[in-house]
Amino acid sequence: MKRILLIKITSLGDMVHTLPLVHDLRRAYPGAKIDWVADASCADIPRWTVGIDRVIAPPLRQFKKNGKKWRDLRGILGAVRDLRREPYDVAIDVHGVYKSAIVARLSRTRRRLGYAAEFLGESRAEFAYTELFGPHGDADCRHKMRLVVANALGYEIEPQETCELSIPKPAAPLAADGVPRAMLFHATSAEIKKWPQANWIEVGHALSLRGYRVQLPWGSQQEHEEAKALAAAIPGAEVLPRMSITECAQRVDAAALVVGMDTGFVHLADALGKPTVMLFTATSRPHFGVNRPGQSISVGDNGVRPPVDEVLAAVAQVTGHGAGASQGLPRDRATGDVSA
Predict the structure, then answer these.
(1) Tens of pLDDT along 66-86?
(2) CATH fold of 3-153, please?
(3) What CATH code is assigned to 181-319?
(4) By C-alpha distance, which of 285, 252, 251, 268 is closest to 16?
(5) ∠142-249-272 over CA atoms, to 5°?
(6) How far apart are CA 56 and CA 64, in angstroms?
(7) What is the pLDDT of residues 108-148, one digit of tens each?
């Protein structure tokens, strides 16, 4: 095996989920060159991934969002030219939608691996594949991805997951004052996934009492307003400025603790080896959760909102000491949530 094409186009969390597979491929084929196709909006993580030789990054999201402008179309056509520049021994589509299937079909290879129709995000994408991934066991999304590719290519995987990233260094050191930072990723893509603001406030109080400086990132204007409301109620909390993916990743890399919803940057924190607590309310914890003993833990589940006490207990597990809840905030006895 001399050249491998890996296809995972979006989103940020899925980029992180793919990292253990990259390590597996590099271990199985140490002399191979591995290229990765990812949307330009998510291409930072592939570029930071140790073992990736080339990232092909068409601006697909931007083309759709900006009204299909000629500039973005030129970027897509340029990416197609880059894709066609090299012959591949195999193209591996671990995304499973039309756009990823089209990428596989356009690549210069006769061997294209993908999921069977019942496992695809868009079933008709199966048209692009010459071979279908074999069945997988009952495992989380990362391990299933590793298993199906290993079975298809005929190599063995190690029990543990390995993620290798090289984040660019910031222009100036972050957290140089020696105060540990705790980043709270409170924002989510949908209202149903949110955790109550009052609960975030109690967690923030507890972390402040333990000597952390709470940092609150945000992406949209609504998230900015929510972050400001949290900061006003948490002693010493800091609302971070608007950041690029790189800048936010650098903050995560400098943090002493990351607590947040099932989002890409919280998955990134786990991949970087940071003490991480991931909260679930409307997505599957067994499928998407993080769980590295002594480092990361997931709480809650689809339809099961985690109580504050469980989150603080999880913080204690990953940091090695008790977090301690703030006092004076009444709880709902049924859920453990803090009453506003």
Answers:
(1) 777 888 899 999 999 999 999
(2) Rossmann fold (3.40.50)
(3) 3.40.50.2000
(4) 268
(5) 45
(6) 18
(7) 999 999 999 888 888 899 999 999 997 677 789 999 999 99
